[in-house]
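Most newcomers find our protein records easier to grasp once they have seen one. Read left to right, the backbone structure tokens trace the chain's path through space. Nothing more is needed to start thinking about how sequence determines fold. An example says more than a description, so a record of this kind follows:
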Amino acid sequence: MQEVIRPSGGWRKSSYSGTGDNCVEVKVLDHGGIGVRDSKNPDGDVLRFGGKEWGLFLAEIKVGRL
């Protein structure tokens, strides 16, 4: 089972993103799940993932499939 990282507080950007503008931010949503947004457009649309889906997504990244 993949662990879901639950950042406290607001939106977080990956430490790998450095100072560039091409980044996404993630946040644990109040109703559960994870929100993902474009850091250049913080008032834009938010993709919402359930905890299980987010864990599967992270697992695919870690094994190099995404």
